[in-house]
Design brief:
Blueprint lengths: L1 H31 L6 H19 L10 H23 L8 H21 L14 E4 L2 E4 H23 L1 H11 L1 H6 L4 H23 L9 H16 L4 H18 L5 H18 L12
Antiparallel strand pairs: 1-2
Helix pairs in contact: 1-5, 1-8, 1-9, 1-10, 2-3, 2-4, 2-8, 2-9, 3-4, 3-8, 5-6, 5-8, 6-8, 9-10, 10-11
């Protein structure tokens, strides 16, 4: 029982970080109604940015949160403005242009192969003062980097929800997500809103990269691992749902951590995909897919 409780704690903390990686994906889909296949690659860019910033300057990993997410925001903003927006304009008569999916897939391959060309295929990690630190919670051990990641993930989700509800930009994002034509008639620039949404989603990927770098390896294809998890999570929680992203992440984290105590990791993967398929058949909208939680 002690091992199961320890695994549950680990699963909750890792699950929150999975939810954090999915948060940017669900935000972009909620506003633009387009699945961003390059999201994992943007996470990889965030991880490499944090890695080199820490490696070259020696700053504390969490101080990188003040630098990397803003950089990733502008990267995502102009990526949407220069690469994706022309597709929307070309297919403005189509409500959800499928060509955007092809474009984001192309961005995924370009970013991954560019990172491979620049940095090579080797795995890198940053060993910091907190990388192997932990504290006791009763008779259980809690990793400080993972606990910090849990706190940052929850704070990011709460902050995003408040931003969407309390600010004018957030209200414009919500209005566009509900009805882009009506939002245009009210004077909201649809394409500028898309730029902001994509920038925010990319910035959240940057936050996730900073959170993961103290204890997780970074390499050019690391985004694929989290991309697959993120897609499963947003389906479980509901595309466009902020609490759904966190809940879906917790479900995946708990399955990975707890079930691995009783069976091989390959079986836990099979269980995750089985639950994914069951949700698609039984409730395709996910846990919170029918609720407007913004």
């Amino acid at each position: 029982m002690t091992a199961v409780i320890q695994a549950t704690l680990n699963g909750i903390m890792m699950g929150a970080m999975y939810g954090l990686t999915a948060l940017g994906l669900t935000l972009i889909f909620g506003v633009m109604k387009v699945v961003n296949f390059a999201h994992g690659s943007l996470l990889m860019v965030g991880m490499f940015s944090a890695y080199w910033l820490i490696k070259l300057t020696g700053i504390h990993p969490y101080l990188a949160l003040l630098i990397v997410p803003p950089i990733l925001y502008f990267f995502g903003y102009y990526l949407q403005d220069l690469v994706i927006k022309p597709v929307f304009r070309a297919e403005r008569q189509v409500r959800e242009p499928l060509t955007v999916i092809i474009v984001t897939t192309g961005v995924w391959y370009v970013l991954d192969n560019l990172a491979l060309m620049l940095f090579g295929a080797e795995y890198r990690t940053v060993r910091t003062a907190i990388s192997n630190k932990s504290f006791a919670l009763g008779s259980f051990i809690v990793s400080i980097p993972k606990f910090s990641g849990f706190v940052i993930a929850v704070a990011t989700a709460v902050g995003l929800a408040l931003f969407m509800r309390k600010t004018k930009i957030g209200m414009a994002l919500r209005a566009t997500s509900l009805d882009r034509e009506a939002a245009n008639l009210m004077g909201i620039d649809q394409y500028k809103v898309y730029n902001i949404a994509f920038g925010l989603g990319t910035a959240i990927a940057g936050i996730a990269g900073c959170v993961l770098i103290p204890f997780y390896y970074v390499y050019p294809s690391v985004g694929v691992v989290f991309d697959i998890r993120a897609f499963i999570i947003v389906v479980l929680g509901g595309l466009g749902s902020i609490p759904g992203a966190l809940l879906g992440g917790l479900v995946i984290g708990l399955i990975e951590s707890v079930f691995s105590q009783f069976m091989a990791s390959t079986w836990t993967e099979a269980i995750i995909y089985a639950i994914f398929l069951i949700i698609l058949f039984v409730k395709p909208s996910g846990f919170f897919g029918n609720k407007q939680d913004w």
